[in-house]
Design brief:
One of its GO terms (molecular function) is phenylalanine 4-monooxygenase activity. It comes from Gaopeijia maritima. It is an enzyme of class 1 (oxidoreductase). The structure is a single chain. This protein is of the alpha/beta class. It has twelve helices and six strands. The chain has a single domain, classed as Aromatic amino acid hydroxylase (Phenylalanine Hydroxylase, Orthogonal Bundle). Bound molecules: fe (ii) ion (FE2). The site of fe (ii) ion has 5 residues, from α6.
């Protein structure tokens, strides 16, 4: 049983560079910020009720997201903490990979708190609060996904050979960012890049994307390109499948190398 304390939850893990971390000031959001959140939320939810994974849909409810305004991370973290002990911690922007993994290993998700401009509703290079909190954080309320992501962070932090680091980046990309899951007799989306984007989601479920069964070996052999629609994605049967793949990655790293 977790006992959440707001300040402890939002503090950066010990030993990490404090310059990465910041606080969310709700009064700093403009009327346009709230409007952008509201437009994006309504637009995505209208589709996600049919195409989103159960874990996303129930997680969004658990953490209290709604269309009316930019979410208050303290409230999100109180709800999330009670459920799985995860927290979204505000960061100033890009965070170095090892520090990012170290945060995941402590059930802390580094979260951008800025809102994209209204002129860039659909596409944006850097993550914003809609990608991070709408796209990622609902999944952290799912106990199995929560365990997977923590384990992923711990394993990724151990990888040292460049090929192994690349393999862990591919595992992250094809699951946390662009993952698909077989559910309710159909392929549903759970990866944040798909949850938060109309265009990427339509591509992932459409005829131009080759949806393959998820295996650890298939994923770590598959290169990816950012900033374009994905030609190949992977479908898991359930999140236990992800957790098992992560444990397998850990076993291989302990014994030598993740990649052949
Ligand atoms: Fe992301």
């Amino acid at each position: 049983m977790y006992s959440p304390i707001a300040d402890a939850l939002t503090a950066p893990p010990a030993g990490l560079d404090p310059s990465y971390f910041t606080r969310q000031d709700l009064d700093a959001y403009s009327a346009e910020d709230h409007e952008v959140w509201s437009i994006l939320f309504s637009r995505r939810m209208a589709e996600l009720v049919d195409t989103g994974s159960e874990a996303f849909l129930s997680g969004a409810e658990v953490i209290g997201l709604d269309a009316s305004r930019v979410p208050d991370l303290e409230d999100v973290n109180r709800r999330l903490g009670e459920k799985t002990g995860w927290a979204a911690i505000p960061v100033t922007g890009f965070i170095e990979a090892r520090q990012f993994f170290a945060c995941l290993a402590e059930r802390r998700f580094p979260t951008t708190i800025t809102v994209r401009p209204k002129s860039q509703l659909e596409y944006l290079q850097e993550p914003d609060i809609f990608h991070d909190v709408f796209g990622h954080v609902p999944l952290h309320a799912n106990p199995v996904f929560a365990d997977f992501l923590q384990t992923f962070g711990a394993v990724a932090a151990q990888a040292e050979h460049p090929a192994d680091i690349e393999a862990m980046a591919r595992l992250f990309w094809f699951t946390v960012e662009f993952g698909l899951v077989a559910e309710r007799g159909a392929t549903r989306i759970y990866g944040s890049g798909l949850i938060s984007s109309v265009g990427d989601a339509a591509n992932a479920l459409g005829p131009d994307c080759d949806r393959r069964p998820f295996t650890l070996d298939a994923v770590i052999a598959q290169p990816f390109e950012i900033d374009r629609l994905q030609d190949v994605l992977f479908v898991v049967d359930d999140f236990a499948h992800l957790f098992d793949a992560c444990e397998e990655a850990e076993r291989r790293l302990r014994e030598g190398r993740l990649t052949a």
